[in-house]
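Budget justification aside, the reviewers requested a transparent look at the raw inputs and outputs of the sequence design task funded under Objective 1. We therefore reproduce one unedited record. The lines immediately below are the structure tokens for a 511-residue chain.
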């Protein structure tokens, strides 16, 4: 007797379209189920069996690995293994890996009689993505119907967190304690409440350029490595990136900065602003707009060289006065001021004083980088309400290479009279300090890193908004590390952190 091979059920999507067409010609009723199905469990099996009872043929499409939007480390099982697990079930007739991020195009191509979801989707307004409405419209447009199964419920994320954790013991322990204090629904509701914040972002504009090249070898006559150029990409960095992160959570964002006229990036900058970002630019004829060009190998994303197009001379008095007056004029209109001081010549002491005196709530980061090493410290911002810097930045500011991080934070807090400070510490997570509450150490939630550039800016952007709303700083730090884990999966500032992927990651972490 020939042994049945369940892999025969797994079809290329285009092949599946033809199969369904023939099935429908033969008067077979087709039902479609779509999902990640990262860990097969009894809830999935009962769901599929219930679906099969509603039709003659059950088709299951699997979300492609690159579209599994549940944060770092997911899916645990790749798309082939997930497809094989589903195909092994007797009640499933055909399986395919989906080509698109959602099921909408899949429905339009397959035209099933029924599209089935689990009972957890029956309250459509609870779907974080909102895609259930689009999927319902799609199935109706092809003459089908959206149906739900009613059966025992399990959560793949809960089971994976419990039995297949991708995190070390200390991270699991932190998450176990944290979710006793805050539910995922509560944290997501906090982020949704940021919508009505009016945010002013002040700081340096940076253009990030990535030139991808591959080494070819050493020329015979020179001690250099010759490389082959492949392609180039360009992104908005500095406060332009920060404003986009913020604008995805807050309705009204305004940025203030300077543009150097020695190179013309104004049209590129304005083209890349989100619709809810307004701007006030001051123009400098004496310097270029800051451009940081990085050369890297696309296979491993290893950076080999960087060129900075920068002239960080002091802001001319005439322009400085205009900037200062503008800040004094508009700052009171905003609930939160985020100052991202990269030390590239825009923010001087007069502008600092205007920011500090007029802000209702001031969140600050002063970045230490190769262009300002030793000259750009957080200590120039007294009375900031929230400070967010990394460990090398606080150590340089306090001239202390080996001291205990908690002592450094307390020293900065006293010096600046700042009640809330977060210090990010790379793979060691973040140290959170709130006056009256004390310290909380929050581990990292990232498992893989594509590019660290811009991750700190993303952390600052979202946490500043949560902090300005007055929420506890341990919650602020948790959100920041979740944001950071998503940000390091993106090349530079190619795309900002968006609410839905963040919400889904938080759901995954706190299952």
């Amino acid at each position: 007797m020939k042994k049945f091979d369940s892999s025969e059920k797994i079809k290329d999507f285009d092949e599946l379209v033809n199969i369904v067409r023939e099935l429908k010609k033969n008067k077979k009723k087709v039902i479609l189920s779509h999902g990640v199905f990262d860990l097969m469990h009894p809830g999935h099996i009962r769901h599929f069996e219930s679906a099969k009872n509603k039709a003659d043929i059950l088709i299951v499409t699997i979300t492609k690995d690159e579209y599994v939007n549940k944060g770092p480390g997911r899916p645990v099982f790749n798309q082939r293994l997930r497809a094989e697990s589903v195909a092994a079930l007797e009640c499933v007739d055909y399986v395919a890996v989906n080509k698109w991020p959602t099921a909408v195009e899949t429905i339009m191509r397959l035209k099933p009689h029924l599209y089935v979801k689990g009972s957890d989707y029956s309250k459509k307004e609870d779907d974080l993505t909102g895609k259930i409405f689009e999927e319902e419209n799609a199935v109706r447009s092809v003459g089908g119907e959206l149906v739900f199964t009613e059966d025992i419920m399990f959560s793949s994320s809960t089971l994976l967190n419990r039995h297949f954790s991708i995190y070390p013991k200390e991270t699991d322990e932190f998450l176990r304690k944290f979710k006793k204090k805050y539910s995922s629904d509560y944290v997501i509701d906090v982020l949704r409440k940021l919508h009505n914040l009016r945010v002013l972002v002040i700081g340096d504009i940076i253009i990030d350029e990535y030139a991808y090249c591959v080494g070819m070898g050493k020329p015979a006559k020179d001690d250099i490595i010759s490389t082959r150029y492949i392609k180039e990409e360009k992104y908005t960095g500095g406060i332009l990136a920060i404003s986009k992160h913020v604008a995805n959570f807050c309705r009204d964002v305004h940025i203030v900065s300077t543009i150097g006229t020695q190179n013309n990036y104004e049209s590129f900058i304005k083209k890349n602003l989100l619709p809810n970002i307004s701007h006030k630019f001051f123009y400098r004829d004496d310097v270029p707009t800051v451009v940081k060009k990085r050369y890297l190998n696309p296979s491993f994303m290893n950076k080999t060289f960087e060129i900075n197009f920068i002239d960080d001379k002091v802001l001319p008095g005439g322009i400085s006065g205009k900037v200062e007056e503008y800040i004094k004029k508009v700052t009171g209109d905003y609930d939160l001021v985020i100052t991202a001081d990269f030390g590239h010549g825009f923010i001087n002491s007069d502008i600092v004083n205007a920011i500090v005196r007029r802000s209702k709530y001031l969140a600050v980061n002063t970045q230490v980088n190769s262009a300002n090493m030793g000259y750009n410290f957080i200590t120039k911002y007294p009375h900031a309400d929230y400070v967010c810097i990394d460990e090398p930045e606080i150590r340089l500011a306090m001239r202390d290479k080996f001291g205990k991080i908690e002592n450094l934070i307390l020293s900065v807090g006293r010096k600046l009279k700042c009640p809330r400070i977060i210090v990010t510490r790379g793979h060691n997570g973040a140290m959170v300090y709130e006056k009256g509450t004390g310290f909380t150490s929050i581990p990292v939630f990232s498992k893989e890193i594509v590019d660290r550039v811009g991750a700190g800016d993303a952390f600052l952007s979202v946490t500043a908004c949560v902090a300005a709303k007055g929420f506890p700083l341990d919650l602020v730090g948790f959100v920041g590390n979740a944001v950071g884990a998503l940000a390091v999966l993106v090349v530079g500032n190619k795309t900002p952190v968006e609410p839905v992927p963040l919400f889904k990651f938080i759901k995954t972490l706190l299952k």
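The radius of gyration is 26 Å. Residues 196 and 466 are 12 Å apart (CA to CA). Computational costs for records of this kind are itemized in the attached budget.
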